[in-house]
Design a protein that fits this description.
- The chain is an all-alpha fold.
- It has seven helices and no strands.
- The chain has one domain: Ferritin, CATH 1.20.1260.100.
- The longest helix is centred in the N-terminal third of the chain and has 23 residues.
- Pfam families: TspO_MBR.
- It is a multi-pass membrane protein.
- InterPro entries: TspO/MBR-related_sf (IPR038330), TspO_MBR (IPR004307).
Length: about 150
C-alpha cells in the first residue's frame, strides 16, 4: 500500500508541475502568428498527449527512485524533467524558438540516455519512456521547422 501511495503522489506531482507550466506559459498571439509546418498537430491534441506522457514519465521516475540505487539514472530522470519544464517558458514566454530548440535537443538526448541506462537496470522504466522519446523527437522536428519557417 505504501508503494501505491508513493506512486500516486509521484504521478500527481509530475502532472501538477506539467499543468502549472502549461497554465503559466500558454500559446499566445505570437505563437498563433508563426508560420507552422504542414505536420503541426491541432492545439487540442497537446494536453491529452502530455497528460498521458506525464503519467508514464512519473511512473518511470517512481520506479527508479523506489527500486534502483543507480544515482546516475535518478539524475538523468530529474535532469530530463528540468529540461522538459524549461522548454515551454523558452518557447512560449520568451518567444525564443531557437533557445527552445537547443533545450529540446538536449532533452531528447537526456531521454535517450535514460532509456539506454535504464534498459539493464529497470526495463519497465525504460519502456515507459519510449512513447515520450517518440513524442519529443516529433516535437524536436516541429520546433526545428518553426525555426526554419520563421
Amino acid at each position: 500500500m505504501k508503494n501505491r501511495s508513493s506512486l500516486f503522489l509521484f504521478i500527481i506531482a509530475v502532472l501538477a508541475a506539467g499543468l502549472a507550466i502549461g497554465y503559466l506559459t500558454p500559446p499566445d498571439e505570437w505563437y498563433a502568428s508563426l508560420d507552422k509546418p504542414w505536420f503541426n498537430p491541432p492545439g487540442w491534441l497537446f494536453a491529452p498527449v502530455w497528460s498521458i506522457l506525464y503519467v508514464l514519465i512519473a511512473t518511470a521516475g517512481w520506479r527508479v527512485f523506489t527500486f534502483t540505487r543507480d544515482v546516475g539514472l535518478k539524475v538523468l530522470w530529474a535532469g530530463q524533467m528540468a529540461l522538459n519544464f524549461l522548454w515551454s517558458p523558452a518557447f512560449f514566454a520568451a518567444h525564443n524558438p531557437g533557445l527552445a530548440l537547443a533545450i529540446i535537443v538536449i532533452l531528447l538526448i537526456a531521454i535517450l540516455a535514460f532509456i539506454l541506462r535504464a534498459w539493464n537496470r529497470d526495463r519497465t522504466a525504460s519502456i515507459l519512456f519510449l512513447p515520450y522519446a517518440a513524442w519529443v523527437a516529433f516535437a524536436t522536428m516541429l520546433n526545428l521547422a518553426i525555426v526554419q519557417l520563421n
